[in-house]
Amino acid sequence: MVTKIKLDMTYEDRLNTALDYTPAECAAAEPDYVRCYPVDALRQREYARLDETGQVYLDYTGGSLYATSQIETHMQQLINGVYGNPHSINPTSMASTQRVDQARAAVFDYFSADPNEYVVIFTANASGALKLIGESYPFEKNGQYLLTFDNHNSVNGIREYATYHGAPVTYAPITLPDLRIDSATLIQHLKSAKPDGNNLFAYPAQSNFSGVQHSLEWIDIAHDHGWDVLLDCAAFVPTNRLNLSRWKPDFVPLSFYKLFGYPTGLGALIARRDKLHKLRRPWFAGGTVEIVSTLTPAFFRAHGEAAFEDGTVNYLDIPAVEIGLRHIETIGIDAIHDRVTALTRYLLDEMTHMTHHNGAPLVMIYGPTTTDDRGGTIAFNLLDPDGQMFDVRLVETLANQARISLRTGCFCNPGAGENAFHLTVDDVQACSAAAAPVTYERYVAALTRRTGMIVTGAIRVSLGIASNFADVYHFVRFLRVFVDLPSPGLLA
Ligand SMILES: Cc1ncc(COP(=O)(O)O)c(C=O)c1O
Hints:
The chain has two domains: 9-60 and 332-421 and 457-482, Aspartate Aminotransferase, domain 1; 72-330, 3-Layer(aba) Sandwich (Aspartate Aminotransferase, domain 2), CATH 3.40.640. Helix content is 40%, strand content 14%. By secondary structure, it is α/β, with parallel strands linked by helices. It has 20 helices and 17 strands.
């Protein structure tokens, strides 16, 4: 969504006042629990460009940031080596194969996954991994696809494959106000697995909308009831340990840039070997077959991960995955987790206590307001003293002026958004009809007319590997712009 909004002087003045603070004030506001000197030193060493360019980056769930040393190490590797197309036995080809094998081994290592139990399939991103499952999972009438309302669109999109093959699709509810899974209802759904069919259950380990962490215990429970489990870890693994020697989901999609920023265009599907036989790919390509005949329709698929990696793998970037994982290991994912949790706690405390002078709350948070079972992603809206929402496009425009990178909309997670905004089936049907041919602007206008709320989406801030106290302090100061200000309503 790109909307140009002209700001009048009121906003400019308020922005200047809100952001008029000294480093000493920021330092004085720093509660002890967010101090973490090794990580602060890392920020200065590896992510100096943030402060040099004055950027306040609060979109780690969108994409993490790369460390300077990751780029330097990778560039040196490329400058000093000669790498040819892999899967041949010439020296430059073997050099590439070796680097790709090393990267795959690093992924197994990082997630404590046993190579006898799992395969690591390199994909373009998490969505690429999810599409692989969608197109090859044996959906059928005598099977089903169960997924939580809280899911990214790339998981929702698998329902199109399920429906095409006649498999019923069921959404498991999440409950307000915390947007957590409704356990009793999910258990009922899980009990409905078809004994002779293929049943796939998909949920995110961490919501990219609300930051809620849904229990990993659902993996075993679903297995016990006869389900294959797709655990979307794209938003979870950047700040949490995923131990695949303890938890045994069948399919784990992820994107590497969300973990360590570089390279983009690479993800993985980590899949259980004993479930691979279920996946029937609708085509074959170079690299995915042992032998193909053109004289007959015969072809023989490659084995393991090779059957799922179409064409030439991204052999120049894949080695950077190993470099990125080593970088995270050097800092320690637990240190990153603890630091992000502490900063999130500060942010939630501040946001939940900000009020207008009439006592009305400034911030409405969607999801948990404590750090129990949640990550560093916070979705919210700003309210005026009468409880009217601010159009998120206004908030985003002002944030841009304050050099804050945040995100607005529904973050490709419409289920969490529809629940957060209390929308009903009737609302969605009526507004899609009223907005035809549907565009974002027409749909939002129809929803706003119908519900009386300014439903332009939520605002999301998210913390990650290089976040520090100064980032969250700057953001809290920024929120002061809106104290006692009336909402101008839906912007044109
Ligand atoms: C939970 C979740 N799943 C899947 C995806 C899709 O990731 P990508 O866009 O890298 O394919 C995202 C991206 O934000 C996500 O947050």
